[in-house]
Amino acid sequence: MKTAGDILSVLFDERFKKKAEGYSKLFDSWADITAKNRIAAASAHSRIKDLDRGILLIETDHPGWKQILQTKQSKLLNDFRIRFPELDISGISLMLGKPESCGESQENESDVMRQKYCYATPEKMPDTEESVTKGYDAIKDDELREKLKKLGQTIAVSEQACMGMTNTKKNGKLYIDKI
């Protein structure tokens, strides 16, 4: 049985195939390039819409995100030029689009944020800190155990923000309080 790639390679010449792969990689690179420029959240509110005559058209869902991208525009352009020299990207044009066009619907933003950035729900969280520390006790390497504890605390703080909780640190231990 032939794969879709085999069939396409018969239909299109190699040059066209490479060009199509380049465009595909360009569109897929948006999240990575925004993260590299420390504006990773912008990728959820914007997208590469087109590449026309060397101008990369980027659509945002809010004027604030457009302004943030404008502050990084020259760095973004430089990153695209380095990563895709064969596409001859000469500029970036930013435009405002409909809110639904760049990401998910904004109907219930808190649910969207929770789904994107939160990995735990209140029913999945441990009842006591004791149940969490039992798992760490099984790790023999002291250095690894401490690093994992710190990572767990960082993740817990992030999840609390998503679930409307606060934390209290007493005697070097992290306690979770519901608001």
Describe this structure in words.
By secondary structure, this protein is of the alpha+beta class. It has two domains: 12-106, DnaA, N-terminal domain (GMP Synthetase, Chain A, domain 3); 122-178. Helices cover 53% and strands 17% of the residues. It has nine helices and five strands; from the N terminus they run H-H-H-E-E-H-H-E-H-H-H-H-E-E. The strands form two sheets. A three-stranded mixed β-sheet has the order 1-2-3. A two-stranded antiparallel ribbon has the order 4-5. Helix 7 packs antiparallel against helix 9. Mean pLDDT is 75; it is low at 104-110 and 113-128.
Brief overview:
With 179 residues, this protein is of the alpha+beta class.
Would you give the CATH topology of the largest domain? GMP Synthetase, Chain A, domain 3
Strand order of the largest sheet: 1-2-3
**What do the pLDDT scores average to?**
75
Q: CATH homologous superfamily name of the largest domain?
A: DnaA, N-terminal domain
Q: N-to-C terminal Cα separation, in Å?
A: 58 Å
The rough form would be described as: extended
Work out the radius of gyration.
23 Å
- The proportion of strand residues reads 15-25%
Low-confidence stretches: 104-110, 113-128
Search tags:
GMP Synthetase, Chain A, domain 3, 53% helix
Secondary structure layout:
Elements (H helix, E strand, L loop, with lengths): L3 H8 L2 H15 L1 H7 L9 E7 L2 E6 L2 H9 L1 H11 L7 E6 L2 H4 L6 H9 L11 H9 L4 H22 L1 E6 L2 E6 L1
Parallel strand pairs: 2-3
Antiparallel strand pairs: 1-2, 4-5
Helix pairs in contact: 7-9
